[in-house]
Structures are given as structure tokens and as C-alpha cells.
Specification:
Number of helices: 8
Helix content: 25-40%
Order of helices and strands: EHHEEEHEEHEHHHEHEEE
Number of strands: 11
CATH superfamily: P-loop containing nucleotide triphosphate hydrolases
CATH topology: Rossmann fold
Shape: globular
Strand order of the largest sheet: 7-8-9-4-10-11
Bound molecules: adenosine-5'-triphosphate, magnesium ion
Structural class: alpha/beta
Number of domains: 1
């Protein structure tokens, strides 16, 4: 597929919707109730997707559907979204407010579960995992950065960053050591003992990035990581993400409204009313 982007050191490695046969609406409707059909269409799509890469993609999401319901009102936030992400990919997800960007990121990051479709991470079908195994997979392979940082106020930067390592079973000492290493990587080694309120917004976001990286994930998801920042801090955060992706070969998938942020991605995709397409809209 064609890849847009301006950073020559970035690699491509994302693949987009492969539409076949029935409409998105049909598929989302049918997938909620017909498992047999779903399996066969998933298999075909997965095989053709894989053949586009020299090695298997890191994450494959196929035919994701998600509808929110409030009484009689229903909002189709994701309509048959298919996407592959390979190692080291940098992908910017754009689109208007309410188009489904955060919903998509939450499904890919295993924070939420789609109504239909499947997600395969390094060959492991997430749908077949127990809740516990899914949580472990998330801790091991995925990192997530929220717009509002989501740091624990009473903990220092180092303690915040160490948490996912502790949750994954590392000793206190190991966790603290790894946390310091990550803080160094995002340029905040000297702020290790600061609490969030003693840090600027940009610094807090870099702490959140360090926390997302402490278990050395394969993919980092970031939902509008620069939305609360002034433009200078936003640039530092985006440069940090791009450098980490290039150095550590972590795939980075981020949501942004900012046209400038697209420069940090090898591929830009756009959500429109729950549908995903390549390029910016
Ligand atoms: N928990 C929820 N319950 C009900 N509806 C929801 C829920 N979360 C999202 N929605 C609806 O789903 C649609 C997509 O929401 P989403 O948050 O994914 O959009 P977005 O593209 O991230 O928007 P923004 O740019 O404003 O963050 C919206 O119409 C929203 O109102
Ligand atoms: Mg959002």
C-alpha cells in the first residue's frame, strides 16, 4: 500500500481496510449473531493481509464493530474496521470529534471489547483468551497513553512508571531500576522524585509515555497525547514518541487532530462516522 509521511527513518507497516462483498452495516449486523460465517471471512482476510508483509504483522484487527446503546438511541462508533500494524510502524489516526478514534484505539489497546470482529496480536487471537490472559497480554505487549496523563498524584514519577513492571511481577528493585531507565529515555531522569503536580503538562505526559514503555511493549497507543499541551511541549512529546519508535522499534499508533503531528507518522488514516480510510480527510 502507499504510505504517506515525511520522516525517512520511519517505516511503513500498516495496512488498511480490505473491503469484500457485503456492506459494513451488513457485516456488523451479521457478525453479532452468526459465528460460522464470521470465522470463514476472518480467515480469508487474515491470510491475504499477512501476504502483504515480509513477516507477519504485529497486530491485525479485522471487521471491528462497536455500537453504543442508550435506550432507543444507538451510535455505531466502529463499522467494519480492518487494520494491520507491523513492527516499528508509526500511524496517526485523524478524524472529526465523535468519528470513533478513541473507540478504535481502546479496542486495539484491549481496554474495551468490540461487539464483533477479531484482534490478533503476534498470532494470538485475543478473543480466545481468558480475561486474565488478556490482561497479561496487555501488560506484556501493549502500552497506552491517555490524553489526561492518568498518573497517580500521590506517587513520584519513578513510582508511577514502575507500577506496570510491579504488576507484571518484577521485584520492587527491578521495577524502580527499569522506571529510572525509561525516565532517562524520555529525558526526565532528574525528575524521578517529583510528584505529578510538581511537573509541567508536557513532563507529565512524558512520564506517562515512560510508564507505557516500562514493560518494553511492542505497540504504544496514545490518544491525543498532545491535546492538553502548548505547542512547544507538544513538539517535545511528539519528538519523544518518534525517537522511541525509531530506536526501540516500538510501533506507535496515536490519535491527533493536529495537522503538524501527522509529520511524525509514516502513515495517516482517518476515521469518518465509524469507518476507517487511508490518508487524511
Ligand atoms: N461509553 C460510551 N457510551 C455511549 N456512547 C459513546 C461512548 N463512548 C463513545 N460514544 C459515542 O461514540 C462515538 C465515537 O466516540 P469516540 O470517543 O470514539 O470519538 P472520537 O473520535 O474519539 O472523538 P473526540 O475527537 O471528540 O475524542 C461518539 O458519537 C460518542 O458519543
Ligand atoms: Mg477521542
Amino acid at each position: 500500500m502507499t504510505v504517506s509521511g515525511k520522516l525517512s527513518h520511519m517505516t511503513d507497516h500498516a495496512e488498511l481496510p480490505r473491503r469484500r462483498g457485503s456492506s459494513r452495516e451488513d457485516r456488523c449486523e451479521r457478525d453479532s449473531g452468526d459465528d460460522g460465517e464470521r470465522e470463514s471471512s476472518r480467515g480469508t482476510s487474515c491470510r491475504s493481509s499477512t501476504s502483504a508483509f515480509s513477516r507477519p504483522p504485529l497486530l491485525v484487527a479485522e471487521h471491528l464493530c462497536k455500537t453504543y446503546r442508550h435506550g432507543k438511541l444507538s451510535v455505531a462508533a466502529l463499522r467494519d474496521v480492518t487494520l494491520s500494524i507491523a513492527s516499528g510502524a508509526t500511524v496517526c489516526i485523524g478524524g472529526r470529534s465523535g468519528s470513533g478514534k478513541s473507540t478504535l484505539l481502546r479496542q486495539l489497546g484491549l481496554i474495551d471489547t468490540p461487539d464483533a470482529g477479531r484482534i490478533v496480536i503476534e498470532g494470538e487471537d485475543v478473543g480466545s483468551l481468558s480475561q486474565r490472559a488478556r490482561g497479561e497480554l496487555r501488560l506484556r505487549k501493549l502500552g497506552y497513553v491517555f490524553q489526561e496523563y492518568a498518573l497517580l498524584e500521590e506517587l513520584t514519577a519513578q513510582e508511577n512508571v514502575a507500577l506496570p513492571a510491579l504488576m507484571r511481577g518484577a521485584s520492587r528493585r527491578q521495577s524502580r531500576r527499569r522506571a529510572l531507565k525509561q525516565l532517562d529515555l524520555v529525558g526526565l531522569g532528574e525528575r524521578a522524585h517529583h510528584r505529578p503536580k510538581e511537573l509541567s503538562g508536557g513532563e507529565q505526559q512524558r512520564v506517562a509515555i515512560a510508564r507505557a514503555l516500562v514493560n518494553e511493549p511492542r505497540i504504544l497507543f496514545a490518544d491525543e497525547p498532545t491535546a492538553n499541551l502548548d505547542s512547544a511541549s507538544a513538539q517535545v512529546v511528539m519528538r519523544t514518541l518518534a525517537a522511541l519508535s525509531a530506536e526501540l522499534r516500538v510501533a506507535v499508533v496515536f490519535v491527533s487532530h493536529e495537522p503538524d503531528d501527522r509529520d511524525y507518522a509514516a502513515l495517516t488514516v482517518t476515521m469518518r462516522d465509524g469507518e476507517l480510510s487511508e490518508g487524511h480527510g
